[in-house]
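Quick note —
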Amino acid sequence: MGTIAVQEVGEALQLRAPELLGFTGTPGGAVALTDKAGALFEFAAGMAGGRDLTPRDVMNVGSVAKPYVAACVFVLAEMGMVALDAPVSAYLPFALVNPVGGPAVTLRHLLTHTAGFATDTFDASWSRETRYYERELEAGRTHEYDGVRFRWADRAGERYIYSSFGVGLAGRAVAHVLGKPFGQCVHDLILGPLGMQETAWPDGPGWDDIAARRVPGHLRVGPTTFTAPMVTSGSPEACELVTSPADHLRFLRALWNAGETGDGGRVLSRDSVTALLSPQVKNILFGLDLGWMGHSVQFRNNGQPDFFWGHGGGFPFQGWAESRVYPELGFAGAAFDRKWEVYRHIDPPDAVFAGIVLDWAARWMRDGAVPPNRLSLANAWPYAVGLIVGERYVGSLGLHIVTDEALHTLVKGRVTEDDARFEDWDEGQFREGVHAMERTGGDPERIAAVLDDPASPVGREEMEMLSLAWGAARPTDMVLVRGLADRSGVPAQLQHLAPYDRSAR
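Predicted structure written out below.
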C-alpha cells in the first residue's frame, strides 16, 4: 500500500468529474481534499441554480452539522460546564423525561443516538419556528406523516436509533448553558478559532451573507429534475449547517490533529478528541449498514486500510454530502453534490457523486497511483456491455464460455439503444468484452482483475459509472451474485482444500 499527493488525486478526480456527474444524473458537485499538514486541492464541476458551480460556493449539508454539536459539548465538558453522563435536563430550559422509563437521558445518549427517540428525518418546516422542541415533546409524536408514530421508541441506553431531534437537543443544551444562540456558540468555540469564514448556522454570525450565497439543489423523480425549494429545520443545530467543502475540512483537520488549530492554538484537548473519536454503537439506518457511530461521528471500514471517520448528510431534497478522514491513507475529503433521488429515502453513499469521488480517492491513495486515462464512455460502452453480458453467462451461470451460436443470437437480436449517450454500437468491442470474460473462466478474482488491466478500454471507475446508469443497486462489484463466489462460509475443516482445478475437467 502506498499513498500519493492530494494534488495528483484531486486532478484525476477533476478530470473524471464531468462524466461521473452525467452518469449519476447529478447537475453539479464540489470537492476538496487535504492532507494532515494542510495541503489542499479543491474543484467544482457542473451546475446548480442555473449557473456553473465554483469551489467557493456554499451549500446546505444537513447532518454534517452533527460533529460540530458534539465538539461544542466536549469543549463545555473540558470547561467543567457540563458532564456527558449527567441528566441533560440540568442543561435545558425544560425537563426532558423519557416516558418509556429507564435511566435519565444524558448528553452522551443524545450524541450517540441512544436516548430512546424514534428515528426521524429533518424536523422540516417552511418557516423558522420557536419553541419547536418543547412543542414536539409535549405532543409526544414524531413530526413526519401527521404524527402517527410516538416520539419515543425505547428506554435510554437500550439501543441505537438515529435521531436528528436528539442531537439537536444537545445543541440546544449548549446554547442554554452558554446563554447565547447555538450559531454564536459554535462560532466562538470552533469556527472563529479555526478561521472558518464560509460556515454558519441560522442563528450565528455571518448567516445572512453566507445563506445568500447558497446554491440550491435538485430533486429528481425518474427522468424529471426540479430545483428544490428551501425548507428550514426545527432542529437546526443538528441539520442546518451551510458550508463549503474546503472550509469544512478545516474542522476535520483540527480533529485529525488532536484538536490543534494549526497556529499554536487548540479547539479541544487531545483527550477530548480521543473520546470524541471513539466508536460507540453499530450504525444501521433505514436498512443501510453504515459502520459504527461515535459521539455524532461515523466510522466505516474498521480495521481496513481505507478506514475513515467523519459524517455524511443530506439536505432535503437538494443533495448529499460526504466528509471523511482516512488516517491510514493520509488524506481527508469533503464532497457535496446537488441531487436527491426522491424515490429513495436515503441515497447510499456509494451510489451518489459525493460518496463515489471519495471512494475513488481512497482507492487511488491505497494503490499509490491514479488509473490511466481511458476512452470516453461514449466510445467504450459496448465493451462494457460485453463484459457484463459475458460475466453473467460465464460467472453467474457457470457456463465458462459463450458459444458462437449464443453470441450470434445476442448480436443479431440487439434492440437499438434509446439513450443518446449510447447510440454508437460497436459489435467488435462488444464481442471483445465477452471474450475477455471468457478468458477468466468465471474465477471471481480474475473477473475483478479485468478492470485493473491498463489496456482495458473500461476500468473500475468507468464500469461503476455505467453500472449506475444501467440500474445497479451497488456499482462497485462486477460479480453479479457475490454469495455464489464467496468461500468465507466454507467450514473450517474444509478450508485446506485446494481451489477447484478447471483444467481437470
